[in-house]
Amino acid sequence: SRFQLRPARRFRPGERDAGPPANAGVSRAAPGAITVNASFVLDPRLVADSHAVAALDLCDLRLHGDSSFPWLILVPRIVGARDLIDLAPPQQGQLYAEVDHCSRALVEAFHPHKLNVAALGNVVEQLHVHVIARFRDDPAWPAPVWGRPSSAYAAGAREARIAQLQALLGR
Questions:
Q1: FRET label pair with 54: which of 128, 145, 160, 170, CA 20 to 30 Å apart?
Q2: How far apart are CA 170 and CA 136, in angstroms?
Q3: Angle, CA 122 vertex, CA 121 and CA 127 arms, to 5°
Q4: How far apart are CA 158 and CA 82, in angstroms?
Q5: How does pLDDT run across 7-35, given as a tens digit for each residue?
């Protein structure tokens, strides 16, 4: 069967599919403190499609450019991370905490019917997590938000949304 368990593939030294070492991109300055790699660069497609909101402890928080949905993107500042398993356990815990914090902010501000949280990475491989507030009357409901025309923010609306989110997140 297609989903049958098989022995793990052996990787040659330097092969990307093996993932980075468990501590790649992180150093511990104090117990529990996470310091991300200074050489991190945000994927140009994420830069083009979203706007900076805040620098969280692990992630860059960005607002997606589609004004049809309250849509946040969290990007862990970890060089080479493509999948959740590329993060060390403390980083995974921090990512979850930041997704939780942002999810609660969207619920508080917008009272959505449903939250969509996803880390796909089929188009942009750099690890990023989408947190999207969904409503029964939104333009894509109940379908996914991907693959539909987007609606840019009106003049001043993007800055107002970013300020609102920063205030909710205490940034």
A1: 145
A2: 29
A3: 15
A4: 28
A5: 444 434 444 443 444 444 443 333 444 44
Residue 27 phi, psi dihedral angles, 5° rounding: -135, 155
As a whole number of angstroms, the distance between CA 93 and CA 61 comes to 16
Where does the pLDDT of residue 36 fall: very low under 50, low under 70, confident under 90, or very high at 90 and above? low
Distance, CA of 29 to CA of 6 (rounded, Å):
40
Tokens 């009106």 -> residue: 154
Between the alpha carbon of residue 1 and those of residues 8, 10, 111, the distances in Å are 16, 21, 43
Calpha distance 20→29 (Å, rounded): 20
Smallest CA-to-CA distance from 164 within 37, 63, 50, 35 is with 63
* Residue in the structure block whose two tokens are 């989903």: 3
- What is the rounded CA–CA span in Å between residue 62 and residue 160? 14
In sequence order, which residues have a C-beta less than 8 Å from that of residue 138 and are 6 or more positions away?
68, 69
The structure's pTM equals 0.80
Strands 26-27 and 35-36: antiparallel
DSSP structural state of residue 152: B
107, 62, 17, 145: CA torsion to nearest 10: 60
